[in-house]
Design goal:
about 45% strand; alpha+beta; globular; 4-stranded antiparallel sheet; single chain; 3 helices; about 130 residues
């Protein structure tokens, strides 16, 4: 098992079963990635970073993308975070709804020289 600190008592944990977890040690909230979900997530990082730049410049952002297994990443104007959350479709409905399962990464956890980027925060793990 390997651990990587991503700031503010948050870690990225590589499990022996190949799962990847982004975990908040204080609240125990987490996002879980299978290898296939992690690959899909990494393919989305450039667009996530583009939306993140827009968000930090005060532009309107309403972005959400599914990366597998009911998990989505979203960025929304008015919320200064990257939300990694599991969604579901309630019985008899067609619209997805968020669950309580997930974690919100604060923008300061993704800031590097030249502005915030999630890809540079996670690049050394990939």
């Amino acid at each position: 098992m390997k651990f990587f600190s991503i700031g503010n008592d948050r870690i990225l944990k590589l499990e022996k079963n190949d799962e990847i977890r982004i975990l908040d040690n204080s609240t125990k909230k987490e996002a879980v990635f299978t290898p296939a979900c992690w690959a899909s997530f990494l393919l989305s990082l450039d667009e996530i970073d583009n939306q993140l730049r827009k968000l930090t410049h005060g532009e309107h952002v309403a972005y959400r993308i599914h990366y597998g297994g009911g998990w989505h990443v979203s960025l929304t104007k008015g919320f200064r975070c990257i939300d990694l959350r599991k969604f579901y479709v309630p019985f008899g409905e067609t619209t997805i709804k968020p669950t309580k399962t997930g974690i919100a990464l604060r923008l300061d956890e993704c800031e590097m020289d030249g502005g915030p980027t999630l890809s540079r925060t996670l690049a050394y793990v990939a």
